[in-house]
Amino acid sequence: xxxxxxxxxxxxxxxxxxxxxxxxxxxxxxxxxxxxxxxxxxxxxxxxxxxxxxxxxxxxxxxxxxxxxxxxxxxxxxxxxxxxxxxxxxxxxxxxxxxxxxxxxxxxxxxxxxxxxxxxxxxxxxxxxxxxxxxxxxxxxxxxxxxxxxxxxxxxxxxxxxxxxxxxxxxxxxxxxxxx
Length: 180
Description:
Elements: E1 19-24, E2 29-34, E3 37-40, E4 45-49, H1 56-63, E5 65-70, H2 76-83, H3 92-95, E6 100-101, E7 110-111, E8 116-126, E9 131-141, E10 151-153, E11 159-161, H4 169-174
Antiparallel strand pairs: 1-2, 1-5, 3-4, 4-9, 5-8, 6-7, 8-9, 10-11
Family: Belongs to the flavoredoxin family.
GO molecular function: FMN binding; oxidoreductase activity, acting on the CH-NH group of donors, NAD or NADP as acceptor
Pfam families: Flavin_Reduct
């Protein structure tokens, strides 16, 4: 093995899929690309990494609400485009041709073009690590969508798309104790 610069070690461990985080600050909708996401335990709790450098961060702090919209491989160029411009001077929904749909529980919009959307409320902000903890309130899935492969950021400007689904449910179920 050869040495990898330590500041590149994060590219070896990939978090959850790239998501769009939508907000509404009371005046207008916004969307940002977030490449660091994770699920917290087996509940509908999630975490994203973001901070004051992102225009949407203030809306997350103020409104305590957002939507996690899950784009697919066919949206990759829009994912990158949204990630490299700011909502402070760009209407990203108009610029990138996204359709905002009203959810049931938060003011932030769902995105019609996405595979799935999760309405969330902010339950904690861990400022020391720039982590926003979210609780899912409602989830929506477009089960008729042809493209279902999600995106994963490697961290160096490249992405991986979901590949082959490997089913080991039966094997894992065999290891569960009685009654579970």
